Amino acid sequence: MNFRSDNEAGAHPAIIEAVSGAFRAGPVHSYGADEWTQKVERRLREIFDRPDLAAYPVATGTAANVLALACCCPPWGAIYCNPASHIAVDEANAPQFYTGGAKLVSIDGPAGKVDARKLASALAEPVYGVVHHPQPAAVNISQATECGAAYSPEEIAAIASATHRHGLKLHMDGARFANALSFVGCTPAELSWKAGVDVLSLGATKNGALGAEVVIFFNSAAAKEFEFFRKRGGHLFSKMRLLSSQLDAYFTDGLWLANARHANAMARRLVAGLTPLPGTSLLYPVDANEIFVVLPAPMHDALQAAGAQYHPWPSDRPGERAYRLVTAFDTAPADIDYFLSIAKSA
After folding, report:
1. Residues β-bridged to residue 202
2. If both were cysteines, with which of 12, 85, 146, 344 could 81 make a disulfide (CB 3.0 to 4.6 Å apart)?
């Protein structure tokens, strides 16, 4: 009953086999000139219906986010994001380091989202060209958010409208993009560039890969600097097929979406069993595969005694004990049912 994080899940057998097959192929070109890397870019152009898309594999989500933002923001720039965003909380000042000193500016909103009206108000401040102030350069949103909520295309478009009105770039942290896409039910294009996203950090690690992400620029002209940032930052793999073969399998035959659908379905199964129980309540709506829930102390103690694993989470309401539970592509229904049987007994 491990619900600590989808980072703790294993890797899908098809992805493991793909990596093995890439190395059994013998010597191939290095640094991304291999057939797997080229095939991934072609496949992503089809998936996102964007023929001028440029795609760059990297090994970690942090690298994907901060290298992308480095292309969008100068050292004297400002990046607007929700205060709970991954770049603000969980990346140890990597955005500031890779951009050379850009400032993160908090824009609050419900369930980890950036509020479009608050963003528009902040971007309307008379700081442009004033040497004493950081210069607005980029906006970051997470899909799904750190609170498990998914943006609709309309919500993204409202944020993009304010962003582009002032000449900024919109970056999407898509570590759980597949889970959000599965919930929203639109096309990948409608949830990204058609809604106004300029660059997407698309995750695979949390959804069945060994360790692979891909940075997608929806206008290849905007990606000219990325290759240099990636090399300078130590994230250009010589044996790039190690990453690209994972991504090739990930996007083949809709595996990425099937994995996300399963993770989301397991979250809904867990929520359906938990929320009717006395003393439980959700902190946020469950759109993807993260659940933030208040559990009564006896229930929590019984679950811990039975070996259930999940993280504590802060609640704004005094006296409540809240927790985060995350389901994954390989979460077993039997684990959900066992967890619920203990919760119900307690």
Report:
1. 174, 214
2. 85
Q: Residue 319's pLDDT is what?
A: 78
Q: What is the pLDDT of residue 341?
A: 98
Q: What is the pTM of this model?
A: 0.96
Tens of pLDDT, residue by residue over 138-185, are 999 999 999 999 999 999 999 999 999 999 999 999 999 999 999 999
Query: Quick one: tokens of 156?
Result: 């993204």
Average pLDDT along the chain: 96
- Domains belonging to the chain, first-starting first, are 25-253 (3.40.640.10), 256-345 (3.90.1150.10)
Q: Say if residues 9 and 210 touch (Cβ distance below 8 Å).
A: no
Residues of the chain short of pLDDT 50, as ranges, are: none
Give the CA distances from residue 173 to residues 51, 143, 238, 296, 337, in Å, rounded to whole numbers and listed in that order: 22, 6, 25, 33, 32
Axis-axis angle for helices 116-123, 153-165 (nearest 10) = 0
Question: Does residue 150 have a cis bond before it (omega within 30 degrees)?
Answer: no
First CA to last CA distance, the chain: 16
- Which two structure tokens, joined as six digits, stand for 130? 């004033």
φ/ψ of 106, rounded to 5, equals -80, 130
Length of the chain: 346
